[in-house]
Amino acid sequence: METGTALPGPRDGGTSLRFEDNGLMSALCGAHDANLARLEQKTGATIHARGNRLTVTGPEEAQVTAVSALKSLYRAASNGGAVAQPDVDAAIRMAGQPPEPGDAADVSIRTPKRTVSPRSPGQAAYVRALRAYEMTFGLGPAGTGKTYLAVACAVNMMQSGRVERLILSRPAVEAGERLGFLPGDLREKVDPYLRPLYDALYEMLPGDRVARKLESGEIEVAPLAFMRGRTLSNAFIILDEAQNTTPMQMKMLLTRLGENSRMVVTGDLSQVDLPPGVRSGLRDAVEIVDGMEGVGFAHFGHDDVVRHDLVSRIVRAYDARDRSQGRLDLEPEEDAPAP
Q1: Least buried of 47, 119, 230, 248, by fewest C-beta within 10 Å?
Q2: pTM summary value
Q3: The pLDDT of residue 188
Protein backbone atom coordinates (compact mmCIF):
# COMPACT_ATOMS: atom_id res chain seq x y z
CA MET A 1 0.00 0.00 0.00
CA GLU A 2 1.27 3.44 -0.87
CA THR A 3 2.42 5.46 2.11
CA GLY A 4 2.42 8.76 0.31
CA THR A 5 3.60 9.15 -3.25
CA ALA A 6 5.56 12.33 -3.86
CA LEU A 7 4.37 14.28 -6.89
CA PRO A 8 6.09 17.12 -8.75
CA GLY A 9 6.08 20.14 -6.44
CA PRO A 10 3.85 23.17 -7.00
CA ARG A 11 5.21 26.44 -8.32
CA ASP A 12 6.16 27.75 -4.90
CA GLY A 13 8.57 24.86 -4.43
CA GLY A 14 6.35 22.84 -2.09
CA THR A 15 5.92 19.07 -1.97
CA SER A 16 2.77 17.25 -3.01
CA LEU A 17 1.77 13.84 -1.63
CA ARG A 18 -0.92 11.50 -2.94
CA PHE A 19 -2.45 8.84 -0.69
CA GLU A 20 -4.34 5.95 -2.29
CA ASP A 21 -6.85 5.24 0.49
CA ASN A 22 -9.24 8.10 1.25
CA GLY A 23 -10.33 6.50 4.53
CA LEU A 24 -6.78 6.29 5.82
CA MET A 25 -6.16 9.80 4.55
CA SER A 26 -9.08 10.98 6.70
CA ALA A 27 -7.64 9.21 9.76
CA LEU A 28 -4.27 10.81 9.08
CA CYS A 29 -5.77 14.32 8.89
CA GLY A 30 -7.87 13.88 12.05
CA ALA A 31 -11.20 15.42 12.96
CA HIS A 32 -11.47 18.86 11.36
CA ASP A 33 -7.86 18.41 10.15
CA ALA A 34 -6.62 18.66 13.74
CA ASN A 35 -3.57 16.50 13.03
CA LEU A 36 -2.56 18.68 10.10
CA ALA A 37 -2.92 21.77 12.27
CA ARG A 38 -0.67 20.16 14.86
CA LEU A 39 1.92 19.36 12.20
CA GLU A 40 1.86 22.94 10.99
CA GLN A 41 2.23 24.27 14.52
CA LYS A 42 5.17 22.01 15.39
CA THR A 43 7.10 22.10 12.09
CA GLY A 44 6.43 25.57 10.65
CA ALA A 45 5.22 24.05 7.37
CA THR A 46 1.88 24.83 5.73
CA ILE A 47 -0.27 21.86 4.65
CA HIS A 48 -3.21 22.03 2.25
CA ALA A 49 -5.56 19.06 1.78
CA ARG A 50 -7.45 18.49 -1.45
CA GLY A 51 -9.08 15.12 -2.11
CA ASN A 52 -6.47 12.44 -1.50
CA ARG A 53 -3.61 14.90 -1.91
CA LEU A 54 -1.66 16.97 0.57
CA THR A 55 0.53 19.88 -0.45
CA VAL A 56 3.29 20.89 1.95
CA THR A 57 4.92 24.31 1.62
CA GLY A 58 7.27 26.40 3.71
CA PRO A 59 10.99 26.33 4.57
CA GLU A 60 12.82 23.32 3.14
CA GLU A 61 13.65 21.79 6.51
CA ALA A 62 10.03 22.19 7.67
CA GLN A 63 8.82 20.50 4.48
CA VAL A 64 11.18 17.56 4.90
CA THR A 65 10.08 17.02 8.50
CA ALA A 66 6.37 17.36 7.72
CA VAL A 67 6.52 15.03 4.69
CA SER A 68 8.40 12.37 6.67
CA ALA A 69 5.89 12.65 9.52
CA LEU A 70 2.90 12.43 7.16
CA LYS A 71 4.23 9.25 5.56
CA SER A 72 4.87 7.73 8.98
CA LEU A 73 1.36 8.60 10.19
CA TYR A 74 -0.19 7.12 7.07
CA ARG A 75 1.70 3.87 7.70
CA ALA A 76 0.43 3.86 11.29
CA ALA A 77 -3.13 4.36 10.09
CA SER A 78 -2.77 1.59 7.49
CA ASN A 79 -1.67 -0.80 10.25
CA GLY A 80 -4.93 -0.16 12.07
CA GLY A 81 -3.63 2.38 14.55
CA ALA A 82 -5.47 5.51 15.57
CA VAL A 83 -3.73 8.79 14.82
CA ALA A 84 -3.94 11.32 17.64
CA GLN A 85 -1.89 14.29 18.82
CA PRO A 86 0.74 12.18 20.66
CA ASP A 87 1.25 10.16 17.49
CA VAL A 88 1.76 13.35 15.49
CA ASP A 89 4.32 14.60 17.99
CA ALA A 90 6.09 11.23 17.91
CA ALA A 91 6.20 11.21 14.10
CA ILE A 92 7.78 14.67 14.14
CA ARG A 93 10.42 13.59 16.65
CA MET A 94 11.25 10.52 14.56
CA ALA A 95 11.21 12.36 11.21
CA GLY A 96 14.41 12.14 9.22
CA GLN A 97 16.13 9.66 11.53
CA PRO A 98 18.62 7.62 9.47
CA PRO A 99 18.23 3.84 9.70
CA GLU A 100 20.70 2.07 11.97
CA PRO A 101 23.28 -0.18 10.28
CA GLY A 102 21.96 -3.74 10.17
CA ASP A 103 18.57 -2.62 11.47
CA ALA A 104 15.38 -3.29 9.55
CA ALA A 105 14.04 0.07 10.68
CA ASP A 106 11.43 -1.83 12.68
CA VAL A 107 11.95 -1.08 16.35
CA SER A 108 8.36 -1.74 17.30
CA ILE A 109 7.56 -4.23 20.07
CA ARG A 110 4.58 -6.56 19.69
CA THR A 111 2.63 -7.51 22.81
CA PRO A 112 -0.73 -9.31 23.11
CA LYS A 113 -2.68 -6.07 23.60
CA ARG A 114 -0.79 -3.61 21.43
CA THR A 115 2.22 -2.90 19.30
CA VAL A 116 4.48 -0.43 21.09
CA SER A 117 6.57 1.86 18.91
CA PRO A 118 9.33 4.24 20.03
CA ARG A 119 8.25 7.88 20.01
CA SER A 120 11.66 9.52 19.94
CA PRO A 121 15.14 8.75 18.59
CA GLY A 122 16.28 8.14 22.16
CA GLN A 123 13.54 5.57 22.66
CA ALA A 124 14.48 3.83 19.41
CA ALA A 125 18.11 3.58 20.56
CA TYR A 126 16.89 2.22 23.91
CA VAL A 127 14.84 -0.54 22.23
CA ARG A 128 17.87 -1.55 20.17
CA ALA A 129 19.94 -1.72 23.36
CA LEU A 130 17.28 -3.83 25.10
CA ARG A 131 17.49 -6.31 22.25
CA ALA A 132 21.28 -6.32 21.97
CA TYR A 133 22.59 -6.45 25.53
CA GLU A 134 22.23 -8.83 28.47
CA MET A 135 22.14 -5.85 30.81
CA THR A 136 20.86 -2.41 29.87
CA PHE A 137 20.82 0.82 31.87
CA GLY A 138 18.10 3.33 30.92
CA LEU A 139 18.98 6.72 32.39
CA GLY A 140 16.96 9.90 32.18
CA PRO A 141 14.06 11.99 33.41
CA ALA A 142 10.47 10.99 34.04
CA GLY A 143 8.19 10.60 31.06
CA THR A 144 10.78 9.17 28.66
CA GLY A 145 9.31 5.65 28.57
CA LYS A 146 12.21 3.87 30.29
CA THR A 147 10.04 1.48 32.30
CA TYR A 148 7.18 1.22 29.80
CA LEU A 149 9.42 0.09 26.93
CA ALA A 150 11.34 -2.31 29.18
CA VAL A 151 8.08 -3.97 30.27
CA ALA A 152 6.94 -4.20 26.63
CA CYS A 153 10.23 -5.85 25.64
CA ALA A 154 9.98 -8.24 28.59
CA VAL A 155 6.41 -9.28 27.72
CA ASN A 156 7.45 -9.79 24.09
CA MET A 157 10.37 -12.02 25.07
CA MET A 158 8.22 -14.02 27.48
CA GLN A 159 5.51 -14.52 24.82
CA SER A 160 8.12 -15.72 22.30
CA GLY A 161 9.57 -18.20 24.81
CA ARG A 162 12.98 -16.53 25.05
CA VAL A 163 12.53 -16.18 28.82
CA GLU A 164 10.24 -18.09 31.17
CA ARG A 165 9.36 -15.40 33.67
CA LEU A 166 9.27 -11.68 34.26
CA ILE A 167 10.53 -10.11 37.48
CA LEU A 168 9.75 -6.47 38.22
CA SER A 169 11.23 -4.71 41.24
CA ARG A 170 11.58 -1.31 42.85
CA PRO A 171 13.23 -0.12 46.06
CA ALA A 172 10.49 0.83 48.53
CA VAL A 173 12.41 3.86 49.78
CA GLU A 174 9.36 5.68 51.13
CA ALA A 175 8.73 2.79 53.52
CA GLY A 176 12.40 2.30 54.28
CA GLU A 177 11.70 -1.29 53.07
CA ARG A 178 10.40 -1.93 56.60
CA LEU A 179 7.21 -3.37 55.21
CA GLY A 180 6.25 -5.12 58.44
CA PHE A 181 5.26 -1.79 59.96
CA LEU A 182 2.67 -1.16 57.24
CA PRO A 183 -0.94 -2.36 57.61
CA GLY A 184 -2.39 -5.20 55.54
CA ASP A 185 -1.07 -8.39 53.92
CA LEU A 186 2.06 -8.51 51.78
CA ARG A 187 0.30 -7.48 48.56
CA GLU A 188 -1.36 -4.52 50.29
CA LYS A 189 1.95 -3.46 51.82
CA VAL A 190 3.96 -3.35 48.60
CA ASP A 191 1.36 -2.43 45.96
CA PRO A 192 1.56 1.36 46.42
CA TYR A 193 5.28 1.29 45.59
CA LEU A 194 4.93 -1.12 42.66
CA ARG A 195 1.77 0.29 41.08
CA PRO A 196 3.58 1.86 38.06
CA LEU A 197 4.89 -1.58 37.13
CA TYR A 198 1.41 -3.10 37.34
CA ASP A 199 0.07 -0.25 35.20
CA ALA A 200 2.59 -1.02 32.46
CA LEU A 201 1.77 -4.73 32.60
CA TYR A 202 -1.95 -4.14 32.14
CA GLU A 203 -1.13 -2.02 29.06
CA MET A 204 0.56 -5.05 27.46
CA LEU A 205 -1.50 -8.03 28.63
CA PRO A 206 -5.22 -8.69 29.24
CA GLY A 207 -6.09 -8.39 32.92
CA ASP A 208 -7.04 -12.05 33.36
CA ARG A 209 -3.71 -13.17 31.92
CA VAL A 210 -1.80 -10.82 34.24
CA ALA A 211 -3.70 -12.29 37.21
CA ARG A 212 -2.97 -15.89 36.14
CA LYS A 213 0.71 -15.21 35.55
CA LEU A 214 1.05 -13.44 38.89
CA GLU A 215 -0.63 -16.40 40.58
CA SER A 216 1.62 -18.94 38.83
CA GLY A 217 4.79 -16.96 39.46
CA GLU A 218 5.52 -16.38 35.76
CA ILE A 219 5.29 -12.70 36.61
CA GLU A 220 6.67 -11.53 39.92
CA VAL A 221 6.38 -7.96 41.20
CA ALA A 222 8.31 -7.46 44.42
CA PRO A 223 10.36 -4.95 46.40
CA LEU A 224 14.12 -5.05 45.90
CA ALA A 225 14.65 -6.48 49.40
CA PHE A 226 12.96 -9.71 48.26
CA MET A 227 15.72 -10.41 45.70
CA ARG A 228 18.40 -11.32 48.24
CA GLY A 229 19.94 -14.79 48.06
CA ARG A 230 18.34 -15.72 44.74
CA THR A 231 19.71 -16.66 41.31
CA LEU A 232 17.39 -15.35 38.61
CA SER A 233 17.69 -17.66 35.60
CA ASN A 234 15.60 -17.73 32.39
CA ALA A 235 14.12 -14.42 33.43
CA PHE A 236 13.72 -10.83 32.30
CA ILE A 237 14.47 -8.66 35.33
CA ILE A 238 13.58 -4.97 35.56
CA LEU A 239 14.75 -2.76 38.40
CA ASP A 240 12.85 0.52 38.34
CA GLU A 241 13.71 3.75 40.20
CA ALA A 242 17.22 2.40 40.67
CA GLN A 243 18.58 5.79 41.71
CA ASN A 244 17.08 5.05 45.13
CA THR A 245 19.19 1.96 45.77
CA THR A 246 22.32 1.94 47.87
CA PRO A 247 25.57 0.59 46.37
CA MET A 248 25.17 -2.60 48.42
CA GLN A 249 21.60 -3.13 47.20
CA MET A 250 22.63 -2.52 43.59
CA LYS A 251 25.52 -4.99 43.81
CA MET A 252 23.15 -7.53 45.32
CA LEU A 253 20.68 -7.16 42.44
CA LEU A 254 23.24 -7.11 39.60
CA THR A 255 24.83 -10.31 40.87
CA ARG A 256 21.46 -12.13 40.85
CA LEU A 257 21.64 -12.44 37.03
CA GLY A 258 21.50 -16.10 36.02
CA GLU A 259 21.74 -18.13 32.82
CA ASN A 260 19.61 -17.05 29.84
CA SER A 261 18.44 -13.89 31.61
CA ARG A 262 18.19 -10.21 30.73
CA MET A 263 18.30 -7.32 33.16
CA VAL A 264 17.19 -3.72 32.72
CA VAL A 265 18.01 -1.04 35.28
CA THR A 266 16.17 2.28 34.97
CA GLY A 267 16.47 5.49 36.91
CA ASP A 268 16.89 9.25 37.04
CA LEU A 269 20.03 10.45 38.77
CA SER A 270 18.52 13.90 39.27
CA GLN A 271 15.71 12.45 41.43
CA VAL A 272 17.53 10.63 44.24
CA ASP A 273 15.35 10.22 47.36
CA LEU A 274 18.00 8.65 49.58
CA PRO A 275 18.96 10.33 52.86
CA PRO A 276 21.79 12.89 52.73
CA GLY A 277 25.19 11.23 52.75
CA VAL A 278 23.97 8.00 51.12
CA ARG A 279 25.44 7.47 47.67
CA SER A 280 23.13 6.30 44.90
CA GLY A 281 23.72 2.69 43.90
CA LEU A 282 22.76 3.57 40.36
CA ARG A 283 25.52 6.15 40.02
CA ASP A 284 27.95 3.73 41.62
CA ALA A 285 27.01 0.93 39.21
CA VAL A 286 27.17 3.17 36.13
CA GLU A 287 30.75 4.11 37.03
CA ILE A 288 31.77 0.50 37.68
CA VAL A 289 30.25 -1.30 34.65
CA ASP A 290 30.73 1.44 32.05
CA GLY A 291 32.45 -0.12 29.04
CA MET A 292 31.92 -3.68 30.27
CA GLU A 293 31.13 -6.27 27.60
CA GLY A 294 27.45 -7.21 27.51
CA VAL A 295 26.30 -3.97 29.16
CA GLY A 296 24.50 -1.25 27.21
CA PHE A 297 23.49 2.28 28.13
CA ALA A 298 20.65 4.47 26.88
CA HIS A 299 20.68 8.11 27.95
CA PHE A 300 17.45 10.10 27.68
CA GLY A 301 17.04 13.87 27.67
CA HIS A 302 14.13 16.30 27.80
CA ASP A 303 13.65 15.86 24.03
CA ASP A 304 12.66 12.24 24.74
CA VAL A 305 9.85 13.14 27.15
CA VAL A 306 6.70 11.73 25.57
CA ARG A 307 4.12 12.84 28.10
CA HIS A 308 2.26 16.14 27.93
CA ASP A 309 4.26 18.99 26.36
CA LEU A 310 4.21 20.72 29.72
CA VAL A 311 6.20 17.86 31.26
CA SER A 312 9.03 18.44 28.79
CA ARG A 313 9.00 22.15 29.57
CA ILE A 314 9.07 21.41 33.31
CA VAL A 315 12.06 19.08 32.89
CA ARG A 316 13.89 21.77 30.88
CA ALA A 317 13.14 24.39 33.53
CA TYR A 318 14.45 22.23 36.38
CA ASP A 319 17.58 21.31 34.39
CA ALA A 320 18.24 24.98 33.63
CA ARG A 321 17.82 25.95 37.28
CA ASP A 322 20.08 23.15 38.50
CA ARG A 323 22.76 23.98 35.93
CA SER A 324 22.68 27.63 36.93
CA GLN A 325 23.24 26.58 40.54
CA GLY A 326 25.83 23.95 39.65
CA ARG A 327 23.66 21.20 41.11
CA LEU A 328 22.75 19.02 38.13
CA ASP A 329 23.37 15.33 38.89
CA LEU A 330 25.22 16.20 42.08
CA GLU A 331 24.96 14.08 45.21
CA PRO A 332 25.63 14.90 48.87
CA GLU A 333 29.17 14.34 50.01
CA GLU A 334 29.80 10.83 51.30
CA ASP A 335 30.65 12.12 54.76
CA ALA A 336 27.77 14.55 55.02
CA PRO A 337 26.00 14.19 58.37
CA ALA A 338 22.63 12.40 58.28
CA PRO A 339 19.68 14.40 59.64
Answers
A1: 248
A2: 0.72
A3: 58
